Amino acid sequence: MDGLNLLVGLAMGLNLVALGSSRLPSLIQVAAVQGVVLGVMPLVMEPDFRWMAVLIAVATMAMKGLVIPALLRRAMRTANIDRDLNPLIGFVPSLLVGAAGMIAAVLLTRQLPLLPEHQESLLAPGALASVFTGLLLLVGRSKAISQVCGYLILENGIYLFGLLLIHSTPLLVEGGILLDLTVAVFVIGIIVDRIQRAFDSLDTRKLTVLRE
Amino acid sequence: MKELLLILVPLGAAAGAALWPDNRSRPWFLPAAGLAHVLLAFGLLAGGAEAPFHPWLGYDALARAVLPAVSLLFLACAAYGVPYLRLRAERPNRVFVAGLLAALGLMSAAHMARHLGLLWIAAEAVTLCSVPLLHFNNTPRAYEATWKYLLVGGTGIALSLLGSFCLGYASLHGGGAGDLTFAALMAQGAGLSRPWVLIAWVLLLAGYGTKMGLAPMHTWKPDAYGEAPGIVGAMLAGGVTTVAFIALLRVRAVVSAAGAGPVADRTLLAIGLFSVLVAALFLLSTRDFKRMLAYSSVEHMGILSLGAALGGAGLWAAFFHVWNNSMTKGALFLSAGNIRRAAGGRTLDEVSGMAAVTPRSAALFMAGLLAVTACPPFGPFFSELLILKSAFTTGQPGAAGVLLACLLLAFCGLTRVVFAILNGRPRRGARQADSRFRETLAVIVPPAVLLLLALGLGLATPQFLRESWTAAVSQLVSTP
Can you give the residue ranges of every domain in chain A? Predict the structure, then answer.
């Protein structure tokens, strides 16, 4: 349990780093590292060795840690941007809100009925904090790549919550979910690329033709 | 076992279409698979109820009640797709045809899913399949719409996954094994941990509500429907929304088995009325006739949600309305596609006098308008009447009043746009916009058939459909 809590704590710390970083490469890096940290968790949780669990862990690490970040970096290079210069919510305010959200997540999960074996675990507060961080990035940033990173962190939060159920859900379902999420991010990456070509920009605030 | 074919036939056709070398003949995969799917869906419906073939997946009463409607809509769209794609012969259609077929297979899977995780996987996959369909036109506006669809829809999907996990935790916390089949969850009933059930309900309502397009999560809808080709709009409005509605109904049955039914009904009622209201207000101001259809869809999703909140009779009417919604939305989107193509524009500032330019499509669009605004004797009139009636009998006259007022506003908004487009003098740009476009039978018959079906549903609702809706209601309500 301690090893797991250490990893969840690390993931929560990475949330704050993500909120505070203005440079896109470091944001992508944070999302990638968080993905790898998450990939290790099922291995720590499973006392005995299961092939399927190892497979899923390796797949998670490869997708979240290598493939998706590589896709995002490529999009970033073609778009020739490096920073999210004018976020809708500034870096310091979003850092403060994110920290407040983390404290709120811990307090909120105290109120929730949890199973005895999950009382000491940081999984539930970590999940809530990551979901909150992801939503904050989605809403507060203006570049498509930062929003995709926000979506990744949001998904990581849900993955953390899913780990609470790891002993009861069939791994087949987990595998299907993982596959879907991966394809989702992949599709988003492709669309980002197309937007860049069509608008010559990745600033989603320029996507304003369609409105009432 | 045969019910698996409902999923495998379209998916197999999708794979075939992806490998097919010829761009001109590839669209024929659409009507072929559509016809097979319709025959299967109705054949299995006529064959009588059997036990679901697997605890996780089966053509159960709920799927029987609505999947045939989606199947019919797909066949009409597929028949329309052949001449449509011939008009767009310059564009490779491999991804489009394969994506549309895969979406049909996955929609069948989502209708038939009896497992919370499987349902989520299928519903999410439908969303992803429709992404390349949305930006088929490859314009910057289409990419903008796709981006919003992905961002809003993706967040909604993420929330519904979180909700599914919460429902799983509710079972685990209540001492269950964490079995996520709906049957097991309903059997556990009051044993589910109530706080977690409520959290799960909120998240799942937000998640699947986004997919359904309930206000205030509807923001992706006008953009996506406005920019997508007509057949895609029709499938989104009549098929994908139905998937999300069925998902919500399955979850709602679990929530009410856990003893939180009144809470769920209240939220469905509130969100339904809010959707109808928002849609009515936006319908009064929109100037674009494809976006108008999107707001009309939001309105009808609100009506469905309202019906689902009103217990057995309302639920029955909601199933009736699903059929009506699929048929009328299909007819409207397909005829609107014709008008859009001939007019070369979509807003009231660019388009007028289309009754003279495309008389047949204009007549269909007009008739579709009457159907969608619930004029008798079209089907929607009867289903909305039943929903209103059950609102009165369940002691919700206030809800009925709001619904009636909003229906009137929506009627004004819709007729305003439609008359402005059809009447008056044709603009000079029309016809020149796409001189290849002719009102051939191939683009007129599919929407006309859908309209006739909507009319037939109103005049003489087939007995086997009535029975299938009754069976679906008892599947959802009977279990204590």
Answer: 2-206
Interface check for A148 against chain B (CB to CB < 8 A): the answer is no
Interface probe with A: pick from B165, B171, B284, B347, most Cβ of A within 10 Å: B165
Q: Which domain holds residue B29?
A: 2-477
Average pLDDT, chain A: 82
**Residue in A closest to B124 by C-alpha:** A180
Q: Which residue of A has its CA nearest to B284?
A: A212
Tell me which H or E stretch contains B273. Answer: helix B261-285
Q: Do A184 and B177 touch (CB under 8 A)?
A: no
DSSP string, B400-455: HHHHHHHHHHHHHHHHHHHHHHHSSPPPTTTTTTTTT----HHHHHHHHHHHHHHH
Please state the separation of Cα B67 from the chain's center in Å: 11
**Structural domain count of chain B:** 1
Question: Could you tell me if A75 lies within 8 Å of chain B, comparing CB atoms?
Answer: no
Supply B337's token pair. Answer: 């596609």
Whether the CB-CB separation of B135 and A188 falls below 8 Å is answered with no
Which residues in chain A show pLDDT less than 50?
none
Verify whether the Cβ–Cβ distance B147 to A207 is below 8 Å.
yes
As a whole number of angstroms, the distance between CA B306 and CA B334 comes to 27
Whole-number Å distance between alpha carbons of B21 and B121: 30
Residue-wise pLDDT tens digits, A127-137: 999 999 999 99
Low-confidence ranges of chain B (pLDDT < 50): 479-480
Phi then psi for residue A85, to 5 deg, are -70, -40
Is the CB of residue B276 less than 8 Å from the CB of residue B400?
A: no
B136-169 pLDDT, tens per residue?
888 888 888 888 888 888 888 889 989 998 998 9
Cβ distance of A158 and B165 shorter than 8 Å: yes
> Is A200 an 8 Å CB contact of chain B?
no
ipTM of the prediction: 0.89
pLDDT score at B141 = 86
Contact list in A for residue B128 (CB cut-off 8 A) is: 180, 183-184, 187
> Please, which residues bridge with residue A143 across strands?
A203
To the nearest whole angstrom, how far is the Cα of A69 from the nearest Cα of chain B?
18
Residue B450 CA to residue B326 CA, distance in Å, equals 9
pLDDT given at position A44: 82
Rounded to a whole number of angstroms, the distance from the CA of A65 to the nearest CA of chain B is: 20
